[in-house]
Amino acid sequence: MSATRTLELRQPDDFHLHLRDGDMLRAVASISAAHFGRAVIMPNLVPPITDCAGVEAYRDRIMAALPLGSSFEPLMTLYLTEATQPAEVERAAVAGLIRAVKLYPAGATTNSASGVRDMEKIFPVLERMQQLALPLLVHGEVTRRDVDIFDREQVFLEQVLEPLRQRFPALPIVLEHVTTRQGVAYVRSADSGLAATVTAHHLIINRNAMLVGGIRPDYYCLPVAKRETHRQALLEAATSGDRRFFLGTDSAPHAREAKLCECGCAGIFTALNAMACITQLFDDAGALDRLEGFVSLHGADFYGLPPNRKFIRLQRESTPQLFPSVVPAGTDTVRVFDPGMDVFWQVVATMDIAG
Ligand code: NCD
Ligand code: ZN
How many of the other CB atoms lie within 10 Å of CB of 129? Predict the structure, then answer.
């Protein structure tokens, strides 16, 4: 079956994206903007984005890094610290500067040192966010040394997220980059106000990709990829049509040298091929009719945003695509995610009206 097939969708959004800053930002911003209409921008810069002035300045740098005429809209977030003031969060939300606030447990991942150690310290902020119905985006892993890294998400659900949801039942929460079947089940157990982003890479790789036949730092990310049964649960959730699951690529570029060293960084750069890979997965699962919901509708709906006005066209080629293996970023290079499977689909156009 080699006939070319095409597919038109509402333009997708990326509900979890790292754009970084400086040369890296200038290298990757246009890559996301080529496919996605909007993206929720992670605030874990060094130093992190913790106030209105920081958000505005970062948003301006993102806009300046976009190609001329781009309609890409960054949906900005604030980085929650134990010192964050409810009034600052409210100011940012009311001014329309931010769409959400990101909670990193301290030490959980890249640039999370300023994150939260003692949850009680952020209760006043969460209270205010609940009043404002401003989503809390959680990096759902505990960081206690005695908890195995493969169990950190599951323990977070039990020990942190469930008590948090009981205390703030009306606070909209997104469990970011869900990686376990327990995470999927937990999100499904909630009637409203809880959703999860799912990355392209966690739908494709399990931990073997990272550890079998030699250690492959390019597949190291956080939360770390789990065993195959978990990947299958994620794929089932993503392709099920359940509105509580939507795409957040967590595309997280790092310079080659920062990945390939004694203590390599966590993060996989997928912005370039996430859409192609996901379309292939949905095609293989016989779920192309549910793709638009996962990449373009469910997330917008959760955030109270209208669907994008534009559309994209995807095309299934007769031979597998060859993605560039790296992209340049200033004097560095960034490795592009290798899905390790044939991907026949590619995004071929962005259109103002459907086909
Ligand atoms: C992200 C990064 O590099 O900023 N890394 C990752 O492995 N996903 C941070 C994060 O989202 O955990
Ligand atoms: Zn991330």
Answer: 25
